[in-house]
Amino acid sequence: MAQAISPPEVAAESGKERYSSDAAGLGKARAGVFMAPALLLIAAFLVFPALWVLYLGLTNYRLTGVAAAEPQFVGLDNLLDAASNPTFWSSTWLTVEFVLGSAVIGQVVLGFTIAWLLRDKRGPIKRVVEGLVILAWILPSAIVSFLWVALLDRDAGTLNALLGMPGMAWLLDHPMLSIIVFNTWRGTAFSMMLYGAALGNVPPSHLESARLAGASGWQQLRDVVFPHIRGHILTNLLLISLWTFNDFSPFLLTAGGPDGKSEVLAVHVYKVALQGGELGYGAAVSTIILLINLVVAVFYLRLLRSKK
Amino acid sequence: MAAIELRGLTKVYPGGVKALDALDLVIPDGEFFALLGPSGCGKTTLLRTIAGLETATGGAVVIGGRDVTGVQPGGRDVAMVFQDYALFPHMDVTDNIAYPLRIKKVPKGTRREKAAEVGARLGLEHLMDRRPGQLSGGQQQRVALARVMATQAQAYLFDEPLSNLDARLRLEARTFLKKLQRELGVTTVFVTHDQAEALAMADRMAVMEAGHIRQIGTPSEVFQRPANTFVAAFIGSTPMNLLDGIVRGDTLEVAGCKVAVPDSAAGLLSDGEQIVYGVRPEYLAYSAEPADGAFGGKVAIVENLGAAHLVTLDVGGVSVQAVVPEGSEPAVGDDGFALPRRDRALIYRNGELV
Amino acid sequence: MTRFVLGRIGFYTMIAVLLAFFTIPLLWLVTAPFTSDPTYEVRVPDFTWDNFKAVVEHPYALPSLWNSVVLSVGTALLVVIFSALAAYALSRVRVPGRDALLYALLLLSSIITGTAAMVPLFQLAVELNLIDSQMGLILILTGGLLPAAIFMLKDFMDSTPKSYEESARVFGASPLQIVRHVVVPVVRPGLATIAVWSVANVWGNFLMPYLLLSDVEKQPAAVITYTLYTEGGQANLSMLSTFGLLYSIPVVLMYLFVSKKYGFRFHGGIKR
Q: C74-106: per-residue pLDDT in tens?
């Protein structure tokens, strides 16, 4: 479901067109027919589940047993259960760590660093580095997860071989670190490209003036570049935080273990609802996730609009 | 072949802006008619309304005696060439030209033949298999024309037909279009913002401003006797001198000089009236010697127009421009006198021609 | 001078570190498939095709690749057709509430993710007996991709000149003829982009097929990969590496092809 692209910037809609835009003479009726299949699918498989989850969250629905056949309305019990459930809170906290570590710090910093390093380069170095970073992003998630399982293997993994630390079980002893580094590795491409484009838009004359005035690289960065890309940083942060918050791939790497030590919310919902069968409770947590998504998305769109 | 008639044609946009305000116009059969005006005056809206791409809010459009106001664009028997020619990029020249015939369900063989015929008439024989992207601007225009000719419609509509061509080509294309229209004899309406183009090509023209038609007439009429100060200022490569003046008995006091009343306004003026005196720089005879009824002043600027010069005289603080043939141009700072031609000068009262 | 040299050294060091960071995890994928009896170690391969033979002989490996193709292509087809129709209508016709609808689409595509929707979708699928339906999965994936696709295509169509359609219209073509003759050919690059983007999104999608398809014969490569390393005691590394490589190649090829042809990357909007 989560898109591999950023939602395009909202165009400033204006009704100030001089001529009729209905170039083919479609008319409102036919336009409705054209839009219907798409809107129907969206309503059925996107909107309806989102609304349904609100309802489910208010029941005690389970996959098996009595409550499966006759679910009962339990109101806010599920939410209260969640609030008093330590696993829920630890999972939430782990998710915060995950987002902060891999998105806010990891991908943004790494993405920007790479974009900055490569900013004026053409040639093979840029192509190779960018190509590899993008490769990490486009390879299927199941594959890259396993590649990291292989990398981090205790006995024969390349990391231990390189660091000279045989027997270090990264995934068992440092699960959060593992998934944070993994997700940073995987997701940096997007930030790199975004900052690459943003840096390309900084007028070279500004940078030149600063350089001629004696500014060092770091000072140029601080005084010329950051003001120009400030807006991009915030929108980028919001977007990848949203994606990371919803990311399910930690499941592929650690399945939330060991003992729930890397059970981010996405994995927590899966475990509780689909493995554990408590769909009502799982729906309530899903609703919380939806609401958080909503807040972030609205904030993001507001920011985009105000940038125009 | 048909006449086009507009009766009280009005178009109001959803925001309340009146793009066309109760226009009346008759374009006789076979005429090459220009809609001229500055940007935003409504000329393209008018063209699109005739085509049917915009719906009229009020009034009627009549083509060939048939009221087509409520008829869909495809059913009005008109053909249109757009400013960017709109040649379908995925079809070759033959298919582009044959497209209207395809809509009319003409069988493939016949329509390709017809397309080749029309293409040949416009010198496109060697380009029939090319895609529009492989053609030059001039060639694209001819393909667009061929496509329109293939429709054998009653009237042709051209939206800024020359503005997509570069300056040199434009002049050639002007002559080409005028000749073609004469040969075909099809009623043609074209939109342009370039007054020189309109004057050169049109049999008659309408000068528009803000949704209104300010004057309808032949190029000579519009050039020599613009009906109001708007048209007077808009027409002409060098702007007409429009100078405030007062009637003093049987002469005029304009820019502080005593000037004769023009022939066209003889007997129509009353003493003490405020008027605007209009005379084209081309109709002022320049001389270094003072003359009766001339504007006298110091030469402020001399601009080289090629075979002539545009001299700006500072007449008591007012600028008066005159065109001076080559060889007799003055120097800046000289004293100069510009005598207006009585048969070409005009008087405007409250913006309207007297 | 020293500052320049130090700067250079610093630059190349950083580049080396970055290259190492991004290359090392990938090494295993290119060495292990060609190594007989591979372990987690990255070694110089002895260039054997045995692993590939094993993949071909495995009952679920190649069929799962086919399933991935079916899901990706099926979804892409539906997404392209439905989003093109909707985007065209939204671009050309002033439908009441258009702006609100577009905003809602944008919101929807960001908010309703696989993670947020997995519970209701799973429950609904169980209730309606739609578990194990490839068609059902395709519909769900299509629904998920449509909002963004519509948005991108509408953007693209907005900047396609209207004069082609108007020209055809004055020549007498009906709206549907215009769409067929003129619109579709002209927006083909946009459609191709959406198709490729859809395939890329579905090819690697793990969660939805994992949830909604239980029959191993219907599962796409993403799920089979996961199965290969979690089922049973020891992960079958020769299968995993080789199958993984085969599974990865199509997306890489697609990306190379697209960036060569259109020179843009998957980050929002369509370049023209």
A: 999 999 999 999 999 999 998 889 989 999 988
ipTM of the complex: 0.86
d(Cα A83, Cα B191) in Å, to the nearest integer? 71
Which run of H or E residues covers position C157? Answer: helix C134-158
Number of helices (H) and strands (E) in chain B: give both, helices first. Answer: 8, 21
Confidence (pLDDT) at A3 = 44
CB contact under 8 A, A18 and B45: yes
**Minimal Cα–Cα distance from B52 to chain A, Å?**
10
Nearby residues of A172 by Cβ (< 8 Å), 6 or more positions away = A154, A258
State whether A25 and C122 contact (CB < 8 Å).
Answer: no
Name the residue type at position A305.
R
Neighbour tally for A97: CB within 10 Å: 16
Give B91→chain C minimum CA distance, Å. 9
d(Cα A213, Cα A197) in Å, to the nearest integer? 25
Q: For residue C169, what are the contacts with CB-CB under 8 A and spacing of at least 6? A: A23, A24, A25, B53, B73, B74, C175, C178
Tens-digit pLDDT string for chain A (308 aa): 434 444 444 443 344 467 888 988 888 999 999 999 999 999 999 999 999 998 888 888 887 777 777 778 888 888 888 888 888 999 999 999 999 999 999 999 999 999 988 887 888 888 889 889 999 999 999 999 999 988 988 888 888 888 887 888 888 888 999 999 999 999 999 999 989 888 888 888 888 888 888 888 788 888 888 888 888 888 889 989 999 999 999 999 888 878 888 899 999 999 998 888 888 889 999 999 999 999 999 998 888 888 76
Contact assignment for A5 to C267 by CB distance below 8 Å: yes
Q: Which residue has the tokens 């930690």?
A: A250
Counting other chains too, the contacts that B23-28 makes at CB distance below 8 Å and 24 or more residues apart are B23/B59, B23/B211, B23/B212, B23/B213, B24/B213, B25/B206, B25/B213, B25/B216, B27/B3, B27/B187, B27/B189, B27/B204, B28/B3, B28/B187
Mutation for B interface: A17, A18, A26, most B CBs within 10 A: A18
Which residue in this structure is represented by tokens 């005691």? C233
**Residues of A with Cβ-Cβ distance to C248 under 8 angstroms:** 139-140, 143
CB contacts of A25 in chain B (<8 Å) are: 72-73
Tell me which residue in A139, A252, A265 faces C251 most closely, judged by beta carbons: A139
pLDDT in tens, C120-136: 999 888 888 888 889 99
C-alpha distance from B159 to closest chain C C-alpha (Å)? 11
User: For testing the chain C interface, which of B83, B99, B111, B140 should be mutated: the one with the most C CBs within 10 Å?
Assistant: B99
In this prediction, residue A187 carries a pLDDT of 92
Please, where are the H alpha helices in B159-225? Answer: 167-184, 195-201, 219-224
The pLDDT confidence band at residue C267, using thresholds 50, 70 and 90, is very low
Whole-model pTM over 0.95: no
Write out chain C residues lying below 8 Å of B51, CB-based: 170
Neighbour tally for A112: CB within 10 Å: 24
Above pLDDT 90, what percent of chain C?
54
Q: Which tokens go with B236?
A: 């002409």
Q: Does B16 contact A at CB distance below 8 Å?
A: no
Could you read off the pLDDT of B132-143 as tens digits, one per residue?
999 999 999 999
Q: Is B44's Cβ below 8 Å from some Cβ in A?
A: yes
DSSP-derived secondary structure letter, A23: T
Min Cα–Cα distance to chain C from A308, Å: 16
Summary mean pLDDT of chain C: 88
Cβ–Cβ below 8 Å for B99 and C171: yes
User: Which residues are CB-contacts of B350 (< 8 A; sequence separation ≥ 6)?
Assistant: none
Which residues, other chains included, contact C232 with Cβ-Cβ below 8 Å and sequence gap of 6+? none
